[in-house]
Design a protein that fits this description.
- The protein is an alpha/beta fold.
- Helix content is 34%, strand content 19%.
- The protein has helices spanning 6-15, 33-43, 63-68, 102-110, 130-139, 165-168, 185-194, 212-229, 248-260, 275-278, 294-299, 310-316, 329-335, and strands spanning 20-24, 47-51, 73-77, 90-93, 117-122, 143-145, 176-180, 197-202, 207-210, 234-240, 264-270, 286-289, 307-308.
- It has a 5-stranded mixed β-sheet, with helices on both faces.
- The protein is flat and about 60 Å long.
Length: 336
């Protein structure tokens, strides 16, 4: 189902004369790990090691693990490179999926009966279907816009959970967005960041999902956590140790903003942001996560205490207005 570019992998290992390679997969691709590792060892002189630690994106490269196992090359499956990341010891295999997107796109188009101008977006797995989807929609008389790549993406139309530049760059031209994706997280982020109607075209299920209800529900839940945070006096500001999520400067500035409001804050560095790692800090009443924005949005229910993104924390502190919700995440990370 996925294009795992086996020939490219074998050639790269031979060209680089790699003797030991580390293979890193997101959960959804691990079913292929054993077969790939065996094939690499059969066709090259390299030995393989598979990483079983969680992998959330190209922001989470197993580079430290590569050093620890004395590896020559990290082969990272399922995500596109981030422009500023060095590829010296990393080979990115994007794993485009071979699915017919037309049925899902036609169902999504039904939800835009009365709109003409639509922004078209995709996650990396469906990038190979973007132009086909565009052609299908244009055949229905729609005017399709595909936005530019951002600071963390390399392709037009590509969105990440932390980079919605492709949507924001065309938001003034369109009446809504269609996002080709298996899950709803990226589309939810698009709707929160743009305020525009967003529909998921899901090629796995051959269905389309309007995200209005999910977006409204998410905003209500986040507002509850933001309100709870406003009553907390002792705050833990989390510094993610994931390879490309670490933003110590942002964490220090959030800590300073908390302290300006007469509260107490400490910095906590952590690799895996889980309830098991945070619950034992019993005198800390709430957390601000400067790493992956997915955790507060999708995993809040697993945590006993509020865990906010930097933007949400600043809203709670009264530094930025609630009306800016979802619109300042990247600006915060780059400029605060």
């Amino acid at each position: 189902m996925y294009n795992l570019e086996e020939k490219k992998v074998i050639e790269a290992i031979k060209e680089r004369k790699a003797r030991r390679v580390l293979l890193q997969f997101p959960d959804g691709l691990r079913t292929y790990a054993f077969k790939l590792a065996r094939k690499i060892e059969e066709l090259t002189n390299a030995k393989t090691i598979i990483s079983a630690d969680p992998c959330y994106g190209a922001c989470d490269l197993a580079l430290e693990e590569l050093k620890l196992v004395n590896g020559d090359l990290l082969i990272h499956y399922g995500h596109a490179k981030i422009p500023k990341i060095s590829e010296e010891k990393t080979l990115f295999i994007e794993a485009h999926i071979k699915l017919n997107v037309k049925p899902a796109i036609l169902k999504a188009a039904e939800m835009f009966k009365h709109e003409e101008k639509i922004g078209l977006l995709t996650t990396i797995q469906h990038l190979n279907s973007l132009i086909k989807a565009k052609n299908v929609l244009e055949g229905l008389g729609k005017k399709i816009y595909i936005g530019k790549a951002g600071g963390k993406t390399v392709y037009k139309g590509q969105v990440l959970g932390c980079d919605f530049t492709a949507a924001k760059s065309i938001v003034d031209k369109v009446e809504g967005f269609i996002v080709i994706s298996g899950g709803s997280f990226h589309g939810l982020g698009v709707q929160l960041a743009t305020g525009r109607k967003t529909v998921i075209a899901d090629p796995f299920l051959n269905e389309a999902r309007n995200l209005n209800e999910l977006a409204e529900s998410t905003i209500k839940k986040r507002w509850i956590q933001i309100s709870k945070f406003s009553e907390c006096k002792n705050i833990g500001v989390l510094v993610s140790l994931k390879s490309n999520q670490l933003n110590l400067e942002l964490a220090e500035k959030i800590k300073k903003e908390v302290e300006k409001k007469g509260r107490k804050a400490v910095l906590i560095c952590v690799r895996e942001i889980t309830p098991e790692n945070l619950d034992s800090f019993i005198d800390i009443e709430a957390f601000v996560n400067t790493g992956c924005p997915r955790i507060p949005i999708e995993d809040q229910s697993k945590f006993k205490k509020p865990i906010l993104n930097p933007e949400e924390a600043l809203i709670s502190l009264g530094v930025i207005p609630w009306e800016n919700y979802g619109k300042t995440i990247l600006k915060l990370k780059e400029n605060i």
